[in-house]
Design a protein that fits this description.
By secondary structure, this protein is mainly alpha-helical. Helix 1 packs across helix 2.
Length: about 110
């Protein structure tokens, strides 16, 4: 797709996304299982699947859902050997960045 759709933070993202899928894919007869939807985590998948099931009212093959971490990890693994850093290392890296660029965030902590 060559267009971008934005929604207000006051809107229900799951409802808007379900409506977009219904209008542009379900009613057009496209196979939802050929879509991949990327979310920030795993929970939104459950809410979207429930909403799609309510709207379709029958059995269907859902889109493939992946998290942004899975997407980035998959892209990186295709091109080079990569092992994610341990959480403690990541936490220390965030601390160092904050200490160097936004020291005021550490006051009193």
């Amino acid at each position: 797709m060559d267009n971008i759709t934005t929604y207000s933070f006051c809107d229900s993202f799951i409802d808007k996304l379900a409506t977009h899928l219904e209008d542009n894919y379900i009613r057009q007869g496209f196979d939802l299982s050929r879509l991949a939807i990327v979310f920030g985590g795993k929970r939104p998948q459950l809410f979207l699947q429930r909403e799609l099931a309510r709207r379709i009212g029958a059995a269907f093959f859902p889109p493939r859902f992946i998290t942004i971490d899975q997407l980035i990890g998959g892209v990186i693994e295709e091109h080079e050997m990569f092992l994610p850093a341990p959480d403690l290392d990541n936490s220390y890296l965030v601390f160092r960045i904050v200490r160097e660029s936004a020291r005021e965030l550490l006051v009193g902590r």
